[in-house]
Design brief:
It is a single chain. By secondary structure, this protein is α+β, with helices and mostly antiparallel strands. It is built from nine helices and 18 strands. It has an eight-stranded antiparallel β-sheet, with helices on one face. It has a six-stranded antiparallel β-sheet with strand order 14-1-2-16-17-18. The two termini are about 35 Å apart.
């Protein structure tokens, strides 16, 4: 198995229709891994409190923001998500000259969640993530397996006005601000000579390792990455395909555009095989702060045969039970050392039902086509409902408290009818 996971996209005005920012990500993970969609409300904490991440415990902050996350069910962090301030983050695996092998520390996926819980803007998320990186480092297996699959991380982060691309190599990093147009990332370093923030010792470290002569113009991607590995070449293909798909709709990019890109199998963006797309997300964020953002999640593999279901931040969100995996607490094999000695069943209710329907779609062409059409019709209905909210604002917040769970129930009812 040759891991090559994830594609993340963001489009800003004038590339989008209306004054909206569109964010999207496919999470490509081992094909037997369950991805759950979970919600955590805002919380206040006392002094000296700690938070237990996937592998290590770190200091907690006084206040965390409400977050909705799509994450592999075995870990604490997230592959992608959003917070109540409409900050969206997705991460990517990247490999370069610096070894990614190291002691257990914060996973890149932990940093996604920590950035969302602690930052009210995209730029603040860059600051949060890089400060945590400096203090605790990144490391540990990124798969529920003893194989020790490790990597550095890049992050695409957006809010109501801009996006930031943050790329890391060990504790060193560079960040680029994106104020208009579109950007996509796919498992390769992409920051070149436009660097808007950086680790203060990042250039000197590269010079000391012989990667940069200290005189030629500094290009982060060239200096810190290997440009010839099979992984980078594969991601380069997906990166080019993704960029071309964004360019094709430039000036008219919508949520539907982004969903179509995430569903594209010819490009490899909708990945199949031992590593496959196990969860997808599309967010629509109006630049007008008076209007809500809408965050669509599948919580199931393969967006081509999944429903993007809407989530809106309001007070008193109902629990997302049908997309929350079973919890094993301190007895979880991930928490015990040596880790990963067994794999418990992490399938949530929607995953189980979707797995059965996916088998029917694969086996019975006509029946499968009807099921897929019903799923797409439900998605269109939900998007039409959300369009009114995106344009006019939230009328009664209580009506949206159950929006995502009720959409999940409607999706499962669609399965039953089929």
């Amino acid at each position: 198995m040759h891991p090559s996971s994830c594609d993340t996209f963001v489009a800003l005005p004038p590339s989008t229709e209306g004054q909206r920012i569109i964010f999207g990500k496919n999470s490509d993970r081992p094909c037997d891994e369950v991805q759950e969609v979970v919600y955590f409300p805002a919380e206040n904490y006392g002094a000296e409190e700690k938070v237990e991440c996937t592998y290590i415990e770190i200091e907690q902050v006084a206040h965390t923001y409400a977050v909705v996350l799509s994450r592999p069910a075995w870990l604490w962090g997230a592959e992608m998500g959003a917070n109540e301030h409409q900050v969206c983050i997705g991460n990517e695996a990247v490999w370069g000259r610096e070894s990614a092998d190291g002691d257990e520390a914060l996973l890149g996926m932990d940093l996604v969640r920590l950035g969302l819980e602690r930052a009210d803007t995209a730029e603040n998320a860059v600051n949060v993530i890089t400060e945590l990186l400096e203090k605790y480092g990144q490391g540990g297996s990124c798969m529920e397996d003893e194989c020790g699959f490790t990597y550095h991380n890049s992050f695409l982060i957006s809010d109501r006005k801009e996006a930031w691309l943050l790329e890391t190599s060990g504790k060193y990093w560079a960040a680029e601000r994106v104020e208009a147009g579109y950007r996509n990332i796919s498992n390769q370093y992409g920051i070149k000579t436009k660097i808007d923030k950086e680790h203060p010792e990042m250039r000197e470290y590269a010079r000391s390792k012989g990667w940069w002569d200290g005189e030629t113009e500094f290009n982060f991607a060239t200096v810190y990455s290997f440009m010839t590995t099979a992984r980078i070449e594969a991601s380069g293909s997906r990166y080019c395909e993704g960029k071309a798909l964004l360019e094709k709709s430039n000036g008219h990019i919508t949520a539907e555009t982004m969903m179509d890109i995430l569903r594209d199998k010819d490009s490899g963006i909708n990945m199949e095989g031992m590593f496959m797309t196990t969860g997808s997300m599309v967010s629509v964020i109006p630049t007008n702060p008076a209007l809500p953002g809408v965050h669509y999640f599948t919580a199931t593999p393969d967006p081509e045969r999944s429903v993007f279901k809407p989530f809106v931040f309001v007070k008193h969100i109902n629990p997302l039970k049908a997309t929350t995996s079973p919890s094993y607490g301190p007895n979880d094999p991930v928490k015990k050392k040596p880790r990963f000695q067994s794999k418990p069943d992490r399938k949530h209710e929607l995953f189980v039902k979707h797995e059965l329907v996916a088998a029917i779609i694969d086996t019975y062409k006509d029946r499968g086509k009807k099921i897929t059409e019903s799923m797409r019709q439900l998605e269109k209905e939900k998007m039409k409902e959300m369009e009114k909210i995106l344009s006019d604002g939230i009328g009664d917040p209580d009506l949206l408290a159950n929006q995502f769970p009720s959409s999940v129930q409607e999706e499962m009812a669609t399965y039953s009818k089929s």
